[in-house]
Specification:
This protein is of the alpha+beta class and 97 residues long. The chain contains four helices and four strands; from the N terminus they run E-H-H-E-E-H-E-H. The model has no long low-confidence stretch (mean pLDDT 97).
Length: 97
């Protein structure tokens, strides 16, 4: 599985109904699970982003479909970053020559 870091910000609609956001999080976990992925960690954050999630998905297409699906609800905007684990990082850097 590939790891993805998802940065999330509430939209105006999402923050107005913020008390419902735990239910939306559970629904998002279920959607990702149905797509073959897993939400590994979720954080409420302070700063440029309202929330950060760490997810695993079978491939980039599933990660994109997940981000689009949760975005369609109108409560959050997402930025998805593919994350390379330490071993892959070392391999990539080592291959630079």
């Amino acid at each position: 599985m590939t790891t993805y870091i998802i940065l999330l910000n509430w939209t105006d609609q999402g923050i107005k109904s913020v008390k419902e956001s735990p239910k939306r999080l559970e629904a998002a976990k279920a959607v990702l699970s149905q797509m073959g992925g897993t939400l590994r960690a979720f954080y409420l954050t302070m700063g440029a982003h309202d929330m950060v999630a760490v997810a695993e998905a079978p491939d980039d297409a599933v990660a994109a479909r997940f981000a689009l699906t949760i975005g369609m609800g109108g409560n959050v905007r997402t930025q998805v970053m593919k994350a390379f684990p330490e071993a892959a990082y070392i391999e990539i850097i080592s291959s630079l020559g």
